Amino acid sequence: MRSDHVDVLIIGAGISGIGAAYHLQARQPEKTYVILEARDAIGGTWDLFRYPGIRSDSDLHTFAYAFKPWTAEEALADGPSIKAYVEETARENGIDRHIRFGHRALRAEFDSDRALWTVQVEHAGETFAMTARWLFCAAGYYRYDEGFTPRFEGIERFQGDVVHPQHWPEDLDYRGRRVVVIGSGATAVTLVPAMAEDAEHVTMLQRSPSYVLPLPSRDGLANVLRRWLGEERAYAITRRKNIYRQRAVYGLSRRFPRAMRAAIRAVNKWHLPPSCPVDVHFRPRYDPWDQRLCAAADGDLFAAIKSGRASVATDHVESFTERGIRLASGRELEADVVVTATGLNLLAFGGLEFTVDGEPVHLPDTVAYKGFMLSGVPNFVYAIGYTNASWTLKVDLVCEYFCRLLAQGHDAFVPEVTDPDMKLRPLIDFQAGYVLRALDRFPKQGEVEPWYLAQDYFKDAKALREGDVEDGTMRFFDARERAPELAAAA
């Protein structure tokens, strides 16, 4: 029987939301929950993006759940495989029965006297209210209804097709056609070799280079260990090995940026033909991991360039023409299809609006607590993964800690800043353009524990698995009134 009151309301049925539901069932089985999913399918990002070559740039031995081994041969998996994995997780654990598709959470109001959230939900053009003790936002931080495309002069004159990767047309036929992909991030690095297999030629047009590293699509050790040790033991060993590898690459990049720049340049030069100057097209102005490194599975981008099926142009768009794009250098790139892989728009918590005891919550005035709660906002938890490692590593830890909080037995908990003079900085300390455009609409982080994001899995694992939940910052309290919704549900 349908109930519009639950203990935990999870927003989003992507990889984070399904993971949260699993942990809740395993660790707090007496708690009721519902997942609200605005779309009509499980998978989140992996259901939304359908462009050619869509894949993870993190290995699936760390990006997949700790509780469910990744057993496919490919470590850098494609989007459909990841979506199928998330769907299988939901189906195996009965989580799919708790999902309400086509339901979008619009506003959430917390009443401290009742220790209760009232959430306005839109479904099929109508709005109704749900109540919950706790909200778990697993909506990520991408805006799903639109990507970012800058204004290009003369784009209306172009006679070909213009598409954004976030809204890929199912009927787009680029076979034998000339393609220009505008962008140099992970999406462009994925798209170019995938489209080059069927297009006449693909040009990656970038304003400035990004770091691109060729990585094997398969983890040889993982596949050998699976035959020797079985799936679970092999997965645990490979996962730990890859966590250390991620940490080592990031640590070396931050401590020895010049050496890492030289090493990456040497790898790029080895894979590129002499006709492609590495210092023009693959030498960024910033240091490694100031922005996320792009992964070229099995060096496919470099192979496409070497074969002549793809090329790189580093220049600025002056304007579109009827036949293509005119660059600031005066060169014209002829094109039949232009793909604007120009980035994403960020949206905090799926656009959900909050009030606490009648007062609107202004997100930039809040401070992130341990990277998963907000100061002054009770019973609200969110899942945002690492920017310097696999997303799901942090999400798993957040889910575990959330269940530890629930185990305290109180109706509510809220982190409170005790030092009003604490220095603050942006929540996402990352220099990518899509992040910088939106930071003024996001919460802040502090510079002292527990108010800053460590971006360190081992540090977080110790703090969130072993740290004291009563740390002098988290305040627990109980409802002063018995809510009618709870009395009816009892």
Strand percentage lies at 15-25%
Number of strands: 27
Task: Indicate the overall shape.
Answer: globular
* Helical content band: 25-40%
Count up the helices: 14
**Terminal Cα span:** 14 Å
Structure description:
The structure is a single chain. Helices cover 29% and strands 25% of the residues. Strands 1, 2, 3, 4, 5, 6, 19, 20 and 23 form a 9-stranded mixed sheet that branches. It has a 5-stranded parallel sheet with strand order 8-17-9-10-13. α7 (231-255) crosses α8.
Topology diagram in text:
Layout: E1 5-11, H1 15-27, E2 33-37, H2 45-48, H3 60-63, H4 79-92, E3 99-101, E4 103-111, E5 116-123, E6 126-137, E7 142-147, E8 161-163, E9 178-182, H5 186-196, E10 201-206, E11 212-215, H6 220-229, H7 231-255, H8 257-271, H9 278-281, E12 294-297, H10 300-307, E13 310-314, E14 317-320, E15 324-327, E16 332-334, E17 337-340, E18 344-346, E19 353-356, E20 359-360, E21 368-369, E22 373-374, E23 380-382, H11 391-406, E24 412-415, E25 424-426, H12 433-436, E26 444-446, H13 457-466, E27 474-477, H14 484-489
Parallel strand pairs: 1-2, 1-6, 2-3, 4-19, 6-23, 8-17, 9-10, 9-17, 10-13, 11-12
Antiparallel strand pairs: 4-5, 5-6, 7-18, 14-15, 15-16, 19-20, 21-22, 24-27, 25-26
Helix pairs in contact: 1-11, 5-10, 6-7, 7-8, 11-13
